[in-house]
């Protein structure tokens, strides 16, 4: 793993990038055994990719951020029994592992006064199963925030997943072909007091 980080243009732009490659043996993954949740040794895997981000400070109290990452998570040697047939999964992508992730956001956050922000996220396609026969398409998500800040306290409201997307984002340990979905649209209010 390695990376670089830098600050440019009179400290108005922060840039960072990193790359990685990891070979992993004996990863434990969830599996359905006779209709019941269980665990299995997934043999050998390789995780590789890179992550990058840029933060831009155009004017005081405003920051714009953009991030992008590429992840390639694959089985290297893993045989699993599917309906009585041992199947070699080497070369297949790990299920629920998105290759592309991206985000963009703009935040206005002075030391006191009105706060505001908007964030856009993108999660790329991912396979829903180890055999890589069922693919879920990528999806976007949007969030906004607003509030008011004083030296001793802060009041804010955050709205997440405004488009109310319910895409599968993680595999459930409860059984085969069962998934946790992206949390539905929600609005959260918070009040913070600093002692």
Write the layout of secondary structure elements.
Elements: E1 2-8, E2 13-25, E3 28-33, E4 36-41, E5 44-56, E6 62-77, E7 79-82, E8 85-88, E9 100-108, E10 113-123, E11 126-127, E12 135-136, E13 139-149, E14 153-160, E15 168-171, E16 179-181, E17 186-193
Antiparallel strand pairs: 1-2, 2-5, 3-4, 5-6, 6-9, 7-8, 9-10, 10-13, 11-12, 13-14, 14-17, 15-16
- The share of residues in helices is under 10%
Strand order of the largest sheet: 1-2-5-6-9-10-13-14-17
Quaternary state of the chains: single chain
For the biggest sheet, the summary is: 9 strands, antiparallel
Low-confidence stretches: none
- Shape label: globular
| Series of H and E elements | EEEEEEEEEEEEEEEEE
| DSSP, total strands | 17
Q: Number of DSSP helices?
A: 0
Strand-residue fraction? Answer: over 45%
Rounded mean pLDDT is 92
Structural class: mainly beta
Describe what you observe in this structure.
The protein has 195 residues and is mostly beta strands. The protein has strands at residues 2-8, 13-25, 28-33, 36-41, 44-56, 62-77, 79-82, 85-88, 100-108, 113-123, 126-127, 135-136, 139-149, 153-160, 168-171, 179-181, 186-193. Helix content is 0%, strand content 65%. The protein has a nine-stranded antiparallel β-sheet, with no helix packed on it. A two-stranded antiparallel sheet has the order 3-4. It has a two-stranded antiparallel ribbon with strand order 7-8. β1 and β2 (13-25) form a beta hairpin.
């Amino acid at each position: 793993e390695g990376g670089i980080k830098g600050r440019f243009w009179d400290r108005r732009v922060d840039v960072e990038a990193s790359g990685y490659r990891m070979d992993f043996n004996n990863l434990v993954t969830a599996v359905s055994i006779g209709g019941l949740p269980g665990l299995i040794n997934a043999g050998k895997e390789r995780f590789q990719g890179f992550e990058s981000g840029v933060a831009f400070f155009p004017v005081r109290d405003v920051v714009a951020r953009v991030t992008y990452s590429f992840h390639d998570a694959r089985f290297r040697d893993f045989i699993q029994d599917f309906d009585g047939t041992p199947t070699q999964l080497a070369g297949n992508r790990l299920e629920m592992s998105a290759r592309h992730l991206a985000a963009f956001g703009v935040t206005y956050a002075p030391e006191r006064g009105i706060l505001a922000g908007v964030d856009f996220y993108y999660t790329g396609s991912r396979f829903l199963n180890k055999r890589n026969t069922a693919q879920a398409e990528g999806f976007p998500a949007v969030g906004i925030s607003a509030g008011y800040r004083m030296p001793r306290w802060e009041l804010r409201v955050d709205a997440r997943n405004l488009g109310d997307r319910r895409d599968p984002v993680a595999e459930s340990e409860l059984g085969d072909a069962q998934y946790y979905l992206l949390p539905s649209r929600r609005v959260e209010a918070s009040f913070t007091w600093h002692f």
